[in-house]
Specification:
The protein is mainly α. It has helices at about 10-25, 30-40, 45-50, 55-65, 65-75, 85-90.
């Protein structure tokens, strides 16, 4: 059994990571298109939504729910993929290591 404990992140750092995650999604039309399709978001409202902590938490939750995206994002940013758990927790979501793909 793993003794993994997610890194504790401040809310501010978690929000910054979520903004990075949103930018990562937006860099690729396919990634962004899938995110928009699954969330039902209107692309013209993303900028407004990105100011909302709940939206940012949802971006992290979306990434943490897809192993391929989690690993791509982790490589892109240089973070440990499990750090998404700590960021989700800092924004009020409660993912666990077993929830990661």
């Amino acid at each position: 059994m793993s003794q993994f404990k997610p890194k504790s992140l401040s809310r501010e750092n978690a929000e910054m990571l979520a903004v990075q995650a949103l930018a990562f999604l937006a860099e690729d039309h396919e990634r962004l298109g899938r995110f928009l399709a699954l969330t039902g978001l209107d692309p013209t409202r993303i900028r407004d939504q990105a100011r909302q902590p709940q939206f940012l938490a949802g971006v992290l939750d979306y990434l943490a729910g897809d192993e391929r995206l989690t690993l791509e994002f982790a490589r892109h940013t240089g973070i440990d993929p499990r750090d998404l758990v700590g960021a989700c927790a800092a924004l009020g979501l409660h993912r666990h290591e077993r929830d990661l793909p």
